[in-house]
Amino acid sequence: MTLILLVILAALVFTYINGFHDTANSIATVVATKVLSPRQAVMLAAVTNLGGAFIGSAVATTIASGLVDPKVATSEVLICALVAAILWNLLTWWFGMPSSSSHALVGGLCGACLAAAHNNWNVLVWSVPSPKHWWLGTGLIWKVIVPMILSPVLGLVFGFLVMGTLYFLLRNWRPAKVNKTFGILQLGSSGFMGISHGMNDAQKTMGIIALVLLTGTSSGAFDQLPAWLSFLRTAPPEANQPLAIAAWIKVLCALTMCAGTALGGWRIIKTIGHKMVRLHPVHGFAAETTSATVLVTAACFGMPVSTTHVVTTSIMGVGCAKGFNYLRLDVVERILWAWIMTIPASGGVAYLLVKLAQVAGWIQ
Fold first, then answer.
1. The pLDDT value given to residue 265
2. Which are the contacts of 75, defined by CB distance < 8 A and separation ≥ 6?
3. For the chain, is the Cβ count within 10 Å smaller at the N or the C terminus?
4. Residues facing 191 on adjacent strands
5. Structure confidence by residue, pLDDT tens digits, 158-175
6. C-beta separation of 289 from 192 below 8 A
């Protein structure tokens, strides 16, 4: 029981760090274009993140029951996975690199479970096709690998197309009118961005908490619980049905994400909003609208995609429409390396933590 509570605590710490680590994703452009002050943008992001966390639970279900064998994901293993993801998030935040919290969590979860299963790769759920629609399959291939490649490409392409279309439509507008109009419209697009961030990122930790509660219920750890703690029991889903996420889990994770967002993430805001390409309100509107649309679509299909990847490539697409010479390729290169390293780095750390715990006798 104590270990299960420690997992929940670690999951909430991850959510809080995710809040200030990924705050930049939803507010960097609106700050860079000077439509809102940093304080105003953070408050907008906090409120919209909170609202987005309550919309749907498909991403949480994927994390809880669609990536690894729940029998291997014991409390000790999940703690190692979360610690690895937290360490990677803090490291990249310190250096101001917009890496993916989503992929850090997925990498940590897979690395920890693989070590706990003594290198038995069958504990990882690679692919479970849907009986009706092939694109609705579950597992790492359909929910992580394909979206990991496809979502940044969509962000780049649609960011370029949206910005190119706006250039064409606004070609006869005066710059002052463009800035004034899209300064207002960007308030809506940045709010949309915050909602999409909450729909995606807050739900990932909901899935971890639901997973540990399911494991605890199945193992009999909750058999002696007093009546007032009965809400911790989580019944396994019926055949071909998703795992239900309890309302109290949604509330807890949403409020924690909101608190973390309110703290802000100025190091990463500087990288995304200022270093890659100089932005004006029309560019911010195009980037945020593109990013939020891709993220909401992915969330509806239960795909825990990287908010960071989508936002960054959307800004890159907007920058390319403005002119390739406006893009800072040296900054882009650093970000690409952070993307490449995230899953193997967090997975490797989680793997080592589990192995150390096995040597110490904490994990069998």
1. 57
2. 3, 4, 6, 7, 212, 215, 216
3. C
4. none
5. 999 999 999 999 999 999
6. yes
